[in-house]
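Our consortium's second objective concerns turning raw sequence data into structural hypotheses that experimental partners can test. To show how far this objective has progressed, the report includes one record in full. It was chosen at random from the queue rather than selected for favorable results. The single chain below, 269 residues long, was entered without modification.
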Amino acid sequence: MKDGFRTIPLDRIEVPERLRAVDEDHALVISTSVAEHGLLNPITVQGTADGYRLLAGAHRLRAVELLDWREVDAFVTSADGEETLLIEIAENLHRNELSALERAIFVMKYRETWERKHGKINAKGGRPKNRVNLTQFLKEHLGSGFKAHVAERLGLSESAIKRAQYIGARLRPELRQALAGTEHADNQSLLKKLAALEPDAQRTVAKSYAAEPDIKAALAHVSGRPREKTDDPLAKLKRHWRHAPTATKRAFLEQLAESGELNDLIGEL
């Protein structure tokens, strides 16, 4: 199947497990724009024996589904397995809602995939160890290095790529998991500080934070300067409330209401 633009039926598009789930609200916003202006940016698919496999444009595809379209404009590519993964990761990196932690992880995934395709990256520049398709590599990448290549491909600055690579490469999986979805996941300076810690220290921070969601207290366990404890019950309550999931907060309030304590407290104000 030749590469190129074409209009394809929606029911022939296979949607694989994505690196990130589709946000229905975001897809709805896109559908409003598509209804008014049309689909300005076609989706990207890979031709298969039975149809097509979606590579990029999950939100755009969902948007036209919401509009009950039967066909969609697409760029069909014959990219290989590694190249298709690069396209999928790049698609995710273009999303504005990514946290600093998520961006770092995706940059590392992009680098790992790129190295599998071209060979290990030489920090001082030069050719990859894998010399297959060397002419293409020289044409596309020589003299630019990985950071410059990714910066152009993903629309990110070289400094942003460098920071993301550092965080993604050094941050332990245990700490990534502990911070995912928290306010700290988008605190790049904190992530760099944590990434600079030795692996054992990062594990200690992750374990401490999981037990008590207080990053300063968790860091104190590895700084050699224990954080001064406070017996202020209001401060402790506010801290735990701030870090509690919405479902936990709702259950807590419902329990207070059922016991009558909530009405009593409100009546005393």
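The partners drew two points from this record. The first strand starts at residue 4 and ends at 9. Confidence is low (pLDDT under 50) at residues 130-144. Both points have been shared with the crystallography group to help prioritize constructs.
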